[in-house]
Amino acid sequence: MSGFFITFEGPEGSGKTTQIPFLAEALRQAGYQVLTTREPGGTPIGDQIRSVLSDIKNTAMHPRTEILLFLASRAQLVSEVIRPHLESGGVVLCDRYADSTLAYQGYGHGMILDELQNLLLFATEGLTPDLTFLLDLDVEIGLQRRANGGDWNRLDAYELAFHRRVRAGYHQLVKKEPERWVVVDAAQSPRQIQAQLQAITFQRLQALEGIA
Ligand code: TYD
Question: Superfamily assignment of 4-209 in CATH?
Answer without folding.
Answer: P-loop containing nucleotide triphosphate hydrolases (3.40.50.300)
